[in-house]
Amino acid sequence: MNWTKYNLPAEVYDILSQSPKVNIGNTTQELLASAIGGQDNGFFEVTYEVPGKRRYVEAAVARVRNGLSVNYPEPYMRRRDPDCVFVGDDLPTDKE
């Protein structure tokens, strides 16, 4: 990939040049598909394995009418984002 066309700082150029796999979305649709694991998916979990313990769910990403919705299961993670919606009750919802 020709990183020079992006006019990046030298440090970033060096990192990207040594990275074996970098995906760049050229359209909004490509970015949305990348965020949910493929164009045909409507839901995607961002997970990783904790060695010797369990599979950890960092976030759940869902395609919604106007883009994407990201839910962080851990209250700690939700509080780190000042622009998130933090539901303060246990009332039922019409959302999956």
Write the layout of secondary structure elements.
Blueprint: H1 10-18, H2 28-35, E1 43-49, E2 55-64, E3 67-71, H3 75-80
Antiparallel strand pairs: 1-2, 2-3
Low-pLDDT stretches: none
Q: State the share of residues found in helices, binned by percent.
A: 10-25%
Beta-strand segment tally = 3
Please state the CA-atom Rg, rounded to the nearest Å. 17 Å
Reported for the largest beta sheet, the result is: 3 strands, antiparallel
Mean pLDDT across the residues is: 80
Q: State the helix count.
A: 3
Q: How far from one another are the termini?
A: 40 Å
Shape: extended
Number of domain units:
1
How much strand content do the residues show? Answer: 15-25%
As laid out across the biggest beta sheet, the strand order is 1-2-3
Helix-strand pattern: HHEEEH
Report the structural category.
Answer: alpha+beta
Walkthrough of the structure:
Helices cover 24% and strands 23% of the residues. With 96 residues, the protein is of the alpha+beta class. The chain has one domain (3-80).
What is this structure, in a nutshell?
The protein has 96 residues and is an alpha+beta fold.
